Amino acid sequence: MQEGHIPGERIDRVILMIRGEKVMLDADLANLYGVTTKRLNEQVKRNMARFPHTFMFQLTKAEFDGLKSHYLRS
Predict the structure, then answer these.
(1) What is the CA radius of gyration of the chain?
(2) How confident is the model at residue 1 (pLDDT cuts 50, 70, 90)?
(3) CA neighbours within 13 Å on the CB side: how many for 71?
(4) Please, which of 2, 3, 40, 51 could form a disulfide with 30 given CB 3.0 to 4.6 Å?
(5) Which of 38, 16, 18 lies closest to 27 in space, CA to CA?
(6) What is the phi/psi pair of residue 56, to 5°?
(7) What would the DSSP string read from start to end of 1-66?
(8) Residue 43 CB coordination number (10 Å)
(9) pLDDT (tens digit, 9 = 90+) per residue, 59-74?
């Protein structure tokens, strides 16, 4: 495996459907890149001009609770 290459099947496992869009949670994305979630979010905030405005969104409480209960059942 090449350095910096993340296998597609590893990515596929963390893709979720939220609001009809394929998304990844910041914690899962940070894990794929081997950094902390805090560090990932800091870098995104520092470099907002590099990302489209649709790159991220905040989950509603209901969405968060639904994901939390889903993960608890899994």
Answers:
(1) 14
(2) very low
(3) 10
(4) 40
(5) 38
(6) -145, 160
(7) --TT---HHHHHTT-EEETTEEE--HHHHHHHHTS-HHHHHHHHHHTGGGS-TTS--PPPHHHHHH
(8) 13
(9) 899 988 988 877 766 5
